[in-house]
Amino acid sequence: MATWGLSRSAIYLDRERSQIAFNWRVLAQAEDKSIPLLERLKYLCIVGSNLDEFFEVRVASLLAQNTVDGQLAQHTTFTSMMERIDKECHALETRQYEVLNQDILPALSRKGIHLLRHTERTEAQRAWVKSYFEREVRPLLTPIGLDPAHPFPQVVNKSLNFIVSLAGKDAFGRGTAIAIVKAPRVLPRVIKIPDELTEKGQAFCLLSSVIHAHIGDLFNDREVLAYSQFRVTRDSDLWVDEDEVKNLRQALQGELQGRQFGVAVRLEVAKNCPEALSQFLLEQFSLTKDRLYAVDGPVNMVRLSELIDHVSQANLRFPAFSAKPDTKLAQKNIFDVLNKQDILLHHPFQPFQTVIDFIRTASLDPNVLAIKQTIYRTGMNSDLMESLITAARMGKEVTVVVELMARFDEEANINWADRLQRAGAQVVYGVVGLKTHAKLALVIRREEGGGLRHYAHLGTGNYHPSTTRFYTDFGLLTAHPKKAAEVNEVFIHLTGLTKPKKLEHLWLAPFFLQPKIIKAIRNEARIAREGRPGRIIAKMNALVDESVIRALYAASADGVKIDLIVRGACTLRPGVPGLSENISVRSIIGRFLEHSRIYYFRNDLQHDVYLASADWMSRNLFRRIEVAFPVLEKNLKKRIITEGLDPYLKDNQNAWVLASDGSYERRKVRGKQKPFSAQQYLMQTLGSPEDEAG
């Protein structure tokens, strides 16, 4: 494979554009009229949330990397890249609001769900809104008239605010021309108007609309010339010098308070905001005009998710779906079951409750001596964490590796770490400079004969009960002596900072995972060169690591057939003659968020199957603690292939195929094909029979 004559752009797709393209695919779900209305609105909110994070993390990181002595480096490549990002993000956000205003809101109104602006409300509704404003909102507002004694206030990241232009003089005879009003964060953004004031259906209004309608009431004897809502997005990455601090948890607690006031990276205003006011705001936040987003609607579309929560019409949502309990575990001791066979769990089609029960049973079992677990994301309320606390209080040896730097979950993880320590658990925060992203739990139990046995859970997803209901993930419960013992070796490595032993089964990052992946890819290439079928199928969230991509290109040139299922960003350029003509890439966007990581290598019919916590990204392979683990039992291998890979390669409903130019085309039913959705198939195959899988 000769790639040295090709430019970098000919070999790799642009990561940022690929990430934005993912959001276009999510937006297509909001445009899909076959999807229930409230679910379409939810997809719009997801696009908004994804864009927020893209600016908070990715754009902020790019800007920070190109800052030299406080000034942006004027590199042509960087400048053109940022121009492309801004252009595509503007186009995406414009289309997002078009779908909201021209499609979804009118359709909801036809269903009796009305989101009313001030001009659309009846006299009775306006009177109620005015009363609500006076009673609930006005007491919490603190308008700031700007002058030397009242400087521009600190504006919290992603908070709702208003800028007001005033005529005349203030109470002291001075011409304070601009005021800032912060919307109270404690108030709901979507407010239900009483049913008795609505002729048909349900009526709602936004907090921003309420304040808009009565903003003049805040400035007695002053004429409001113009006003606009605005919202600023800030750099939200936390930075702690882990080599310098003595206590990472305490240092991170201090950083969390400052996250809300990081460097501004985007400004959103209302579409009708006067240019003078938007320019004033840009200057306050030290932003250039290309960072200005004038939107036709609420500046924080994510908060429209509150409307979804208010509406009770079941026909506007996906039909209810429940995971099917594992009958093998009913009324049985889970340790007895695991002594006979491994248990493979496929979430959300099978319940995460099995994992919670595994830890809860261990916490109460007098024969269990120790429990060890990694925590990346678990949420504010967690039965699983409560079980670990119970186990510690009962005197068991409980060790928890808490990743404090799990983005946007830092506060929850700090709180759990504190509670665990107070209960007597041993809590560590992973390895300095590396995030602990592996999903591992270990139970050490004394058996009847007096010996110790290890029981382990290894997964592709987080120990977060809420997300397991709408993320697809695999988990393996096993008492396999070698695999479970190797899980213990990983914990010893994490807590003792010892050099990890050579592991027979687990692929551990940052030490062995990348070399093992490259070796497995090259093995398929060798098999293909020798004239036998080489085959790789891999499923993940993102593929951007260049070392893996180069190995895949080389394998493709040797004749290996490679199918990649990559939900999000992918910088591999498929279908290029002489480079990647044997590689196909598809993305699945459906009801559930595809989150599982599966690596399949045919390996001369040995059918090697690995599940993993890691995507094929440099950060996962080199800057995180990650684990990939083999599934050894033939029946479980077959399940992973037939549930986790094959259906997604057949999907012609939710699949998007990546072209060599970086564009995605939605796969459609062709010829005599029948419509087939992988997620629909799995719900019908694995879900509870009493449910109507939608």
From TrEMBL:
Record InterPro entries: PP_kinase, PP_kinase_C_1, PP_kinase_middle, PP_kinase_middle_dom_sf, PPK_C_dom2, PPK_N_dom, PPK_N_dom_sf
Enzyme class: transferase
Post-translation changes: An intermediate of this reaction is the autophosphorylated ppk in which a phosphate is covalently linked to a histidine residue through a N-P bond.
Record field: catalytic activity: [phosphate](n) + ATP = [phosphate](n+1) + ADP
EC number(s) on file: 2.7.4.1
Residues that hold Mg(2+) according to the record: 377, 407
Taxonomy, superkingdom: Bacteria
UniProt keyword annotations, A-Z: ATP-binding, Kinase, Magnesium, Metal-binding, Nucleotide-binding, Phosphoprotein, Transferase
Cofactor(s) essential for the protein: Mg(2+)
All residue ranges annotated as the Polyphosphate kinase N-terminal domain in the record: 12-115
Pfam families, per database record: PP_kinase, PP_kinase_C, PP_kinase_C_1, PP_kinase_N
UniProt-listed NCBIfam families: poly_P_kin, PRK05443.1-1, PRK05443.1-2, PRK05443.2-2
Entries under HAMAP family matching the protein: Polyphosphate_kinase
UniProt-recorded name of the protein: Polyphosphate kinase
